[in-house]
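In the design runs reported in the main text, the only information available to the sequence generator was the tokenized backbone. The following block is the verbatim input for one such run; it is reproduced so that readers can re-run the procedure and compare outputs position by position.
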């Protein structure tokens, strides 16, 4: 089992920045691909970004490319999502997810099938 706990959400003005963190604990969590997904009210959960075990491969949704950066620190068992240039349509609950079954690239199409999930952290963007 892997436990994931997100933090760093909050209220920010459009154009602002937030840094989300996800602390992983449990069974060799550093061996998992990690990712961020989000769900806005009334919408389906959508992929945001993912990162390989070593951190050398990252994948982003088109809607966040150039604005968001995913990174991980395996020594701290933590994955981060730096979000810059936030827009009102980025407002959502952001979830951290982990998987051993899929690569970082595959995670983009497997939002409903990832192995472990956190409870999410809420991001609100005011216009």
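Verbatim output:
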């Amino acid at each position: 089992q892997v436990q994931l706990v997100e933090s760093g959400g909050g209220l920010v003005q459009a154009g602002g920045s937030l840094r989300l963190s996800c602390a992983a604990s449990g069974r060799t969590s550093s061996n998992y691909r990690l990712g961020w997904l989000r769900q806005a009210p009334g919408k389906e959960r959508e992929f945001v970004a993912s990162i390989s075990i070593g951190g050398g491969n990252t994948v982003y949704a088109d809607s966040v490319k150039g604005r968001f950066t995913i990174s991980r620190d395996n020594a701290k068992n933590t994955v981060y999502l730096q979000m810059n240039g936030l827009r009102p349509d980025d407002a959502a609950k952001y979830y951290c997810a982990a998987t051993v079954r899929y690569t970082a690239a595959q995670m983009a199409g497997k939002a409903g099938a990832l192995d472990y999930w956190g409870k999410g952290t809420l991001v609100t963007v005011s216009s």
